[in-house]
Amino acid sequence: MQGPEDAGGAHLVLYDGVCGLCNRLLQFLLVHDHRAVFAFAALQSSIGETMVERFDGNPHDVNSFYVFANYKTAGTVAFTRSRAALFVAHELGWPWRVLCAAGVLPTLALDLIYDFIARNRYRVFGRSETCLVPAAHMRNRFVE
């Protein structure tokens, strides 16, 4: 699956378009991704569903965080949940890369923490009936 030729980013971040926490994360990445290595798509979009299915995931499970490294190539690597979050922190560079120290913990332990946050995100951060509309100068970072 190829994104548009002019879409920024080598790595595709899928976000839940109605989740308040996901929208905050998306806004954070737009500000702090100085190298523009990330492109974005809603998990509910056709490319989101296609990518998740391609890696044997359930596209209707909106409780997971997906990042597809090098998504425009045949060598795409999928990261989910806590490992996706650590990949994002690594790619953002300093000071966010320090969070990668948590990577020494077993994925099971990290995913338990991730799952707790995912289960409570709507209650804590709310829901939105509309997706974020990016500023004109950021639209090339969004696929679809």
Topology of helices and strands:
Elements: E1 11-15, H1 20-32, E2 38-42, H2 46-54, E3 66-69, E4 77-80, H3 81-92, H4 107-125
Q: What's the rounded overall pLDDT mean?
A: 85
The portion of residues assigned to helices is: 25-40%
Q: Helices and strands, in N-to-C order?
A: EHEHEEHH
Strand order of the largest sheet: 2-1-3-4
| Structure annotation, total helices | 4
The tally of beta strands, per DSSP, is 4
Number of domains: 1
Low-confidence stretches: 1-7
The coarse overall form would be globular
For the biggest sheet, the summary is: 4 strands, mixed
Report Rg: 14 Å
Give the distance, in angstroms, between the N- and C-terminal Cα atoms: 12 Å
Helices and strands: which structural class? alpha+beta
As a percent range, the share of strand residues is: 5-15%
Plain-language structure description:
The protein is an alpha+beta fold. It has one domain (11-129). Helices cover 37% and strands 12% of the residues. It is built from 4 helices and 4 strands; from the N terminus they run βαβαββαα. It has helices spanning 20-32, 46-54, 81-92, 107-125; strands at residues 11-15, 38-42, 66-69, 77-80. Strands 2-1-3-4 form a 4-stranded mixed beta sheet, with helices on both faces. It starts with 10 loop residues before the first strand and ends in a 19-residue tail after the last helix.
State the main characteristics:
144 residues, alpha+beta, 37% helix, disordered N terminus
Would you summarize the structure shown here?
This protein is α+β, with helices and mostly antiparallel strands and 144 residues long. It is 37% helix and 12% strand.
